């Protein structure tokens, strides 16, 4: 399935009634089986764009549509946030099953489906644990398993690992790639972390400060296995520094404009 974002803009009403233009002129296509990462400074509209793609917000201008669904239906969207929003009173199994309860699946089918995602996410042995009995990384795995268990057409992730410590975060990025390789879902992923973006993405979309516009789109032409090590390490660094330069230049322009006023 493919998502087409055409000329999209978003304005909010600020607290004292003034207009806040969060995004303008966004043109982007997320192809089938593509992993696209959004990076950009705080407040540039990354979450806004993700939420519009997920149908939680409507664009003020432009359109977002999907192509390539076999039947004429709305796409199923799996979402994972930094605050995963697990139900504290539900076990791992019950949390993962949540999105399946209102479907036509039988109890047996739900149990089977949940078990397969427990295995995929490496949560065996923790089926009956409550969220508070798990580490942060494991809770995120439950959140990802829950999003995948509905077998979405599209996966949207908003800084899912930013609350984790550096080591857990690195491990989770690797885990996520394994899960993604098994499903190859069209994915839109938001992060502040440039290395994370280069590690995960097929393409990195660099947004400018607010109102967010696309400054550039960088295709990461590196194998997924061992992307940041060995022979790839130098190229990996080059990509990260290219993206950093784009963000830095945008921030410097902002400072200069501020001084000129
Ligand atoms: N409901 C809202 N009402 C008014 N302004 C909003 C609302 N939601 C977001 N904004 C503003 O729109 C801009 C974009 O916000 P958004 O959260 O999409 O940015 P972001 O790039 O995800 O930020 P961060 O990286 O800090 O999470 C910000 O200036 C924010 O203050």
From TrEMBL:
Q: Keyword Transport, does the record have it? A: yes
Instruction: Look up keyword Glycoprotein and say if it applies.
Output: no
What name goes with this protein?
Alkanesulfonates ABC transporter ATP-binding protein / Sulfonate ABC transporter, ATP-binding subunit SsuB
What domain of life is recorded for the organism?
A: Bacteria
Using the record's annotation, list all stretches that form the ABC transporter domain.
3-234
Origin organism lineage: Bacteria, Bacillati, Bacillota, Negativicutes, Selenomonadales
Q: Which UniProt keywords apply?
A: ATP-binding, Nucleotide-binding, Transport
Q: What organism does the UniProt record list as the source?
A: Sporomusa ovata
The molecular function GO annotations come to:
ATP binding; ATP hydrolysis activity
* Stored PROSITE patterns: ABC_TRANSPORTER_1, ABC_TRANSPORTER_2
Cite the Pfam families for this sequence: ABC_tran
């Amino acid at each position: 399935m493919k998502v087409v974002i055409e000329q999209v803009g978003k304005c909010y009403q600020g607290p004292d009634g003034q207009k806040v233009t969060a995004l303008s002129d966004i043109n982007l296509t997320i192809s089938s089986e593509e992993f696209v990462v959004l990076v950009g400074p705080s407040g540039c509209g990354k979450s806004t764009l993700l939420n519009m793609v997920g149908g939680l917000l409507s664009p003020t201008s432009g359109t977002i549509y999907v192509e390539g669904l076999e039947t004429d239906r709305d796409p199923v969207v799996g979402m994972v946030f930094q605050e995963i929003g697990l139900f504290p009173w539900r076990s791992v199994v019950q949390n993962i099953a949540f999105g399946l309860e209102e479907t036509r699946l039988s109890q047996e089918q739900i149990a089977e489906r949940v078990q397969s995602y427990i295995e995929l996410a490496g949560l065996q042995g923790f089926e009956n644990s409550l969220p508070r009995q798990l580490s942060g990384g494991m809770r995120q795995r439950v959140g990802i398993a829950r999003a995948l268990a509905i077998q979405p057409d599209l996966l949207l992730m908003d800084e899912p690992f930013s609350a984790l410590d550096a080591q857990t975060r690195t491990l989770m990025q690797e885990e996520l790639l394994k899960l993604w390789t098994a499903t190859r879902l069209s994915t839109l992923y938001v992060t502040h972390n440039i290395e994370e973006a280069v590690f995960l993405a097929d393409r990195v979309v660099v947004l400018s400060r607010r109102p967010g516009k696309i400054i550039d789109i960088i295709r990461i032409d590196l194998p997924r296995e061992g992307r940041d090590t060995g022979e790839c390490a130098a190229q990996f660094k080059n990509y990260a520094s290219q993206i950093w330069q784009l963000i830095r230049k945008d921030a410097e322009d902002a400072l200069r404009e501020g001084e000129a006023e």
